[in-house]
């Protein structure tokens, strides 16, 4: 499966290109922030150099016997200093001046002795953005002699040209640095982030197309960073989803199988019901005594077929709400459980008069599933206790069996996953949980040790109108 079929973005529009552009932008932004103080410093050095050249010219003037030179020498000294005029004042000395005969105009005066950082930056940009034809008077101390004050008048045009040339060099260097840094960052992020992200995306896309194909599962790398964690989590998610899909497929197959055998099984049970009706007319009192129990068992078998089919369908179980005594229901469950090696293994320890509104047949299945599991696991005693609470009823089913293995704890209420019994399907507790939750309650495993297992069931004493209405609505829809 290629990148085009996966609808991955083109390289120019993908994350790599965006990272490259952003890296260049941020590096250039950093260079601009560096350029601002740099250009101010460059202007300051340029003007200080003019002051130093002016000081040297004045030293040449001081070397003459009468501190005076001819016009030609004066012009040459000013030319070498790059100034129209130069003035020098030293402590205890008279002021010396070199200048042309005609006084020159001055457009701006800058005293470097009083200039701060922000003022220097502002002066630098005023030179860059200004007309560039001004004449500047610059005042400051000589770089070679801090006690000598020098004043020069210079053209701004050479300064502007020098600053522009400096800016072009900074810009060119910034571009080279930004491209080089961007290339390194791009390659690093592409190897460390973009390629693994594309790998994750490709795995998710292939898994979406065929989640049951194990070859579409990602194989996590040995990385321990965030990308490695994402790979391991994706692999775990894919494994769990595949297992869930297998469970759903088994549930679907179960629903189809039950649908096919439901009709024939009903006919078989109808025949058994007819025979049981004749047994009720028998002259043997013992036969007449056990016949109602047999009839109830056959009715529950018919109902079990229907309820198993409903479990394989979507939606909560349908409830047929009635008000009944919970103790009587638990007694009936004891009659229907398989025979145990220990007499009286099923013990009803509920208080008398404990009534609730629920679906009697559905709760029968809940208690029967838990009791059957305990007895088949080897329990010699299964006790059912209950008490009233503020929210309803709290029921505990405790046994003295060998307990559940630790591997069964996590999936005990999951269909086909919570069984530890050879040949078991794991549907019993899954169905029990769905039925209890359909009543607005909950079931949980309180403990399971070598001394026994305990389940707790919480049920409301009266169903909410929403449950009753939903149940009635589903029945009307079924009709």
From TrEMBL:
Keyword Nucleotide-binding: yes
Residue stretches making up the Histidine kinase domain: 260-463
Coarse class of the protein's main subcellular location: membrane
Any single GO CC term annotated in Swiss-Prot or TrEMBL for this entry: plasma membrane
Keyword Transferase: yes
UniProt keywords, alphabetically: ATP-binding, Cell membrane, Kinase, Membrane, Nucleotide-binding, Phosphoprotein, Transferase, Transmembrane, Transmembrane helix
Chain spans, region Disordered: 454-479
Enzyme class, UniProt record, top EC level: transferase
TM region positions: 20-40, 170-193
Reactions catalysed: ATP + protein L-histidine = ADP + protein N-phospho-L-histidine
PANTHER family assigned to the protein according to its UniProt record, in alphabetical order: SENSOR PROTEIN CREC, SENSOR PROTEIN RSTB
Protein name as annotated: histidine kinase
Species per Swiss-Prot/TrEMBL record: Ferruginivarius sediminum
Source organism phylogeny: Bacteria, Pseudomonadati, Pseudomonadota, Alphaproteobacteria, Rhodospirillales
């Amino acid at each position: 499966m290629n990148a085009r079929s996966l609808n991955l973005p083109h390289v120019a529009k993908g994350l790599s290109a965006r990272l490259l552009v952003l890296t260049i932008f941020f590096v250039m932004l950093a260079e601009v922030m560096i350029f601002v103080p740099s250009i101010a410093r460059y202007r300051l050095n340029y003007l200080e150099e003019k002051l130093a050249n002016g000081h040297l010219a004045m030293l040449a003037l001081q070397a003459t016997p009468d501190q005076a030179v001819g016009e030609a020498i004066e012009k040459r000294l000013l030319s070498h200093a790059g100034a129209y005029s130069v003035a020098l004042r030293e402590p205890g000395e008279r002021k010396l001046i070199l200048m042309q005969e005609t006084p020159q105009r001055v457009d701006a005066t800058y005293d470097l002795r009083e200039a701060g950082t922000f003022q220097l930056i502002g002066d630098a940009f005023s030179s860059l953005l200004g007309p560039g034809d001004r004449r500047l008077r610059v005042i400051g101390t000589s770089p070679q002699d801090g006690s000598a004050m020098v004043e020069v008048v210079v053209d701004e045009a050479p300064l502007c040209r020098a600053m522009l040339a400096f800016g072009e060099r900074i810009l060119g260097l910034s571009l080279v640095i930004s491209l080089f840094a961007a290339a390194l960052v791009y390659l690093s992020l592409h190897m460390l982030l973009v390629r693994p992200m594309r790998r994750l995306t490709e795995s998710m896309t292939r898994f979406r197309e065929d989640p049951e194909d194990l070859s579409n599962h990602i194989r996590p790398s040995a990385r321990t960073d965030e990308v490695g964690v994402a790979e391991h989590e994706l692999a775990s998610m894919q494994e769990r989803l595949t297992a869930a899909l297998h469970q759903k497929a088994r549930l679907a197959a179960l629903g189809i199988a039950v649908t096919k055998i439901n009709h024939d099984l009903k006919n078989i049970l109808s025949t058994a019901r007819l025979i049981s009706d004749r047994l009720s007319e028998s002259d043997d009192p013992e036969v007449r005594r056990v016949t109602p129990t047999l009839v109830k068992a056959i009715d529950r078998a018919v109902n079990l077929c229907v309820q198993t089919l409903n479990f394989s369908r979507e939606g909560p179980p349908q409830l047929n709400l009635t008000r009944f005594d919970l103790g009587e229901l638990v007694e009936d469950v004891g009659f229907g459980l398989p025979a145990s090696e220990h007499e009286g293994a099923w013990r009803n320890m509920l208080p008398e008069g404990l009534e609730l509104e629920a679906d009697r047949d559905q709760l029968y299945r809940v208690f029967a599933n838990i009791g059957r599991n305990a007895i088949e696991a080897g329990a010699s005693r299964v006790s059912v206790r209950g008490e009233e609470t503020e929210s309803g009823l709290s029921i505990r089913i405790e046994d003295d069996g060998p307990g559940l293995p630790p591997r069964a704890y996590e999936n005990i209420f999951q269909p086909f996953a919570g069984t530890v019994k050879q040949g078991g399907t794991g549907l019993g507790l899954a169905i029990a949980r769905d039925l209890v939750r359909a009543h607005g309650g909950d079931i949980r495993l309180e403990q399971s040790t070598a001394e026994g297992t305990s389940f707790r069931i919480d049920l409301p004493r009266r169903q909410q109108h929403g449950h009753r209405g939903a149940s009635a609505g589903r029945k009307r829809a079924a009709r």
